[in-house]
Amino acid sequence: MNNTLDIKELNERIQKESSFVDLINIEMGKVIVGQKSVVERLMIGLLANGHILLEGVPGLAKTLAIKTLANIIQAKFSRIQFTPDLLPADLLGTMIYSQRKEEFVVKKGPIFANFILADEINRAPAKVQSALLEAMQERQVTIGEETYPLNEPFLVMATENPIEQEGTYPLPEAQVDRFMMKVLVNYPKQEEEKQILRQHLLSEFPTPNSIISPEDIIRARAVVKEVYLDEKIEQYITSIVFATRYPSEYKLEKFAGMISYGGSPRATINLALAAQAYAFIKRRGYVIPEDVRAVSYDVLRHRIGLTYEAEAENISTTDIIAEVLNTVEVP
Fold first, then answer.
1. CATH code assigned at 278
2. What is the mean pLDDT of residues 111-121?
3. Are the CB atoms for 181 and 45 separated by under 8 Å?
4. What's the domain range around 318?
5. 87 φ, ψ to 5°?
6. Are 237 and 308 in the same domain?
7. pLDDT tens profile 230-245
8. Domain end: 164, 190, 216, which one?
9. What average pLDDT score do residues 80-109 get?
10. pLDDT value for 165
11. Contact by Cβ (8 Å): 66, 117
């Protein structure tokens, strides 16, 4: 009985604490037409303290989405265009000699912001990619002999262009695993595209209002961690991840020769964190199986390795995740 009361209290508290989510959606809607899934995934990444990898053709408002979110939250935004000649120092910063002070001083790089857009991350060489991913993981940067903590909240949204693969450096699996979610961005619907066209023909492009501060997000993150995750939901999450590793044990024998590796423990952790953030966005104080299912594709998409056999049979990670979700018993 006491437990039921606690969850009821928590639910009421989270309904109150999450009221800013609707305000953010209203402000984002002034600038971004459609792309609700991308906006929602950005919010999940922000609230669950994770990073997002976006894949989509150019011109789908990926840059505009994160820039708009930064404006709404009054946060510092940096856009870094990744190119083959980029160096780690261009990203992190370096020591420069000051003639006035007659000593070396630190010049901080664009990584020292709240929102980082790493545009076409697969265009930069491995050294630059690993410098960014180290900053993402450690939340700090070492320049010279000093270590500097990065700003909070800190969110990296990296983009990959799926069309042009010439002169690109694919991200190694271990580095891709650092991203909480990989989101596929699709073309807008025809009605949405007409609305986008009208918006760009206006004399003045719409601008969002700044409604909350970075401190509000840090406070909200602490509340997201309190969203109730039942033991049955924990079992459901681990079963989904284990089914990607050992498909035969979950009546998925047909995928046994098609998966080269399944989700890592990071997949389990991120599935739980993303489900908590999703429940918070839906203004609920507890996680239900539908929350887990809603984030499963984006959390697992980049964490399942396919064999040549799967590619020959034209089976994608999306097909495997769909089958896993249909097979694993829902609590």
1. 1.10.8.80
2. 88
3. yes
4. 224-327
5. -115, 155
6. yes
7. 899 999 999 999 999 9
8. 190
9. 84
10. 58
11. yes
